[in-house]
Amino acid sequence: MKRIKVLYAIQGTGNGHVARAREIIPVLQNYADVDVLISGNQSEIELPVKPKYEYRGVTMIYNNNGGVSYLKSLVANNLFRTIRELYSLPVRNYNLVISDFEFISSWSCKFKKHQCIGLSHQSALVSKLVPQPVKTSLLGKLILRHYAPVVHRIGFHFKPYDFFIFNPIIRKEIRNLALEPTDNKAYSVYLPAFSSDKLIELFNTFNRFNFTVFAKDVDVVKLVKNVRVEPIENEKFLNQLKKCAGVITSAGFETPSEVLFLKKKLLVVPIEGQYEQLMNAKALEDLGVKVLRHLNGENKPEIRAWLETENSLEYHFPDETDRIIQNEILPFAV
Q1: What is the pLDDT of residues 120-149, one digit of tens each?
Q2: N or C: which terminus of the chain has fewer CB atoms within 10 Å of its end residue's CB?
Q3: What domains appear along the chain, each with residue ranges and CATH number?
Q4: Where do runs of H (alpha helix) occur along 70-220?
Q5: Could you give the dihedral angle defined by the CA atoms of residues 326, 329, 332 and 333, in that order, rounded to the nearest 10 degrees?
Q6: Tens digit of each residue's pLDDT (9 = 90 or more) over 61-102
Q7: Are 210 and 236 in contact (CB under 8 A)?
């Protein structure tokens, strides 16, 4: 029997999409021949297979204060190149295109009237049943719904809020992590939208605790009093995650999910200008996670109180990958 052909398209502007793909692709290969597309590759995590298509895609650029720089983002993206990429992509060569919130594949399928399904955290956020921030954004909602158009959505969230939403996919490196005794004074920090200098200045004030900051703007290890700054590297992050008491990170999806799975303390700071992160922050806040809207000197008392509290959150995310592929994805292959 001839195997179906699937194009799996990944937005590579962050580690989360790639981390999820590392778990999904090997299982999907049990049922189909899979080619991979990645656009905007800024991930420090490697894919399990070499991508057949690599594009620049559409990328958001951050400033040093934790927000999106729309001017830098506009300059960084080339509209004509993007149009050329989506028209040249041979989506009709595949029985099914799966888009993890990936722009080129989704719009190529839309223009060529070919079936594309969404498999992403962002797919979950279009549901009216997921937690909503107090201040909603029409532009944010439009981006979530139309940035990567699809004919059917399969979403992931911290809870299955709707019929098409499933638990987070936790990568095997996290599921198999042999936890070391927790160092109650050690904390991991992953806030890629902030400069390392700003983070050093802030966390130096909490001198009773030790912080390992993983930063994109350093190439070598830097130690400043109680703050150690490391270049972002997957294995080093995992090693630190094994022994730390908690994690301070942005309000993304994959890293907070992994921290909750490991029963570690979690504090999140949503990236300014990213509506998706505001939605995640509201969902995490509902679960009991500490959320800071800003990261500056004014909320030092909140940070200190969080550092000195014990963790009480505990979540179990079962592995549903094979069931999702068989029951939710393969029926759309034509």
Answers
A1: 999 999 999 999 998 888 888 998 999 999
A2: N
A3: 4-169+319-332 (3.40.50), 172-307 (3.40.50.2000)
A4: 70-76, 79-88, 103-112, 121-124, 138-146, 172-175, 196-203
A5: -70
A6: 554 544 454 445 555 666 778 888 889 999 999 999 999 999
A7: no
